[in-house]
Amino acid sequence: MDELIISPSCSSSLNAPAAADLQYRLQSFLLARPEWWAYAIFWRASPDHRVLSFGDGHFRGARKIPGTDDSVDDGEWFYVVSLSRSFVVARGGDANPLPARVYGSLAPVWLAGVRALQACGCDRTREAQLHGVETLACFPVPGGVLELGSADYIAENWVLVQQVSAIFTTTPHDAAIAPAPLPAARKDGAGLSSSVDSEHSDLTATCWWSAAGPRSEGGSRRAGRTRCPQTTSRRNGSAARS
Q: Where does this protein chiefly localize (predicted)?
């Protein structure tokens, strides 16, 4: 299956400058990662920070398996339907769809495995699971949220988090991808949430990264990490520090 590119300013050449447009950056990011992400979507925030809508994206498709029919890909249908999706960022973050929840709390969420997707309890993750998505990760970025999805089980990865940040911190050459400010972090915002199946890992659920901590008295934002209540990591060195 050919890769699906839908972007208001898509690049037709892989030799284009890395900062030429966001779509090229997303495509390059997916191709450079060792794990197989099926798609990347940038959910763009409205000027009033109340709505997230499709801003840009790249669909790579599921990993091809010899001897299987790849003419039909549920993930492609899920991606195409996402083009018309929008999410209202409402108060009470736990009731929000996953991208809106991440945008409102400034806390990335990484869901790996069927149990994690089911436990999230929102329409976005349920729909993703029905279309064969095994791993769904959302990251707060300037101007919105980056969503990654894969038909494979992918454990959380610090290097990937740093690369996601780099995509949106490079000086843009296109006004369409110029970053907008993120909303103020919720005081009760949790860190990154991860829940995995026991057959894949002994990590139960750990909040291991928070995009931003509370503001200091002078108004500057202090970086911080938070730990999910009643969740611990049994992997050496992977537990979050409060």
A: nucleus
Tell me how far apart the terminal alpha carbons of the chain are, to the nearest angstrom. 45
The contacts of residue 101 (CB under 8 Å, 6+ apart) are 93, 94, 109, 122, 138
Q: Which amino acid is at 64?
A: K
More confident residue, 196 or 80: 80
Amino acid letter, 225: R
Q: How far apart are alpha carbons 114 and 153 in whole angstroms?
A: 9
- How far, CA to CA in Å, does 168 sit from each of 60, 66, 84, 165, 205? 20, 36, 23, 6, 27
Quote the tokens at residue 32.
Answer: 């450079």
Tens-place pLDDT, residues 70-100: 555 788 899 999 999 999 998 766 778 999 9
Single-letter amino acid, residue 137: A
In whole angstroms, what is the distance from residue 242 CA to residue 240 CA? Answer: 6
User: For the whole model, what pTM was predicted?
Assistant: 0.66
**Six token digits for residue 191:** 């860190």
Residue 235: pLDDT over 50: no
- Give how far the C-alpha of residue 12 lies from the chain's centroid of Cα atoms, to the nearest Å: 25
Read off the pLDDT of residues 133-151 as tens digits, 9 standing for 90 and up.
Answer: 999 999 999 999 999 999 9
Segment (H or E) for 116? helix 114-120
Task: Go through the domains of the chain in sequence order and give each one's CATH number.
Answer: 4-181 (3.30.450.40)
Place of tokens 């500057």: 220
Beta carbons within 8 Å of 2's beta carbon, 6+ residues apart: 61
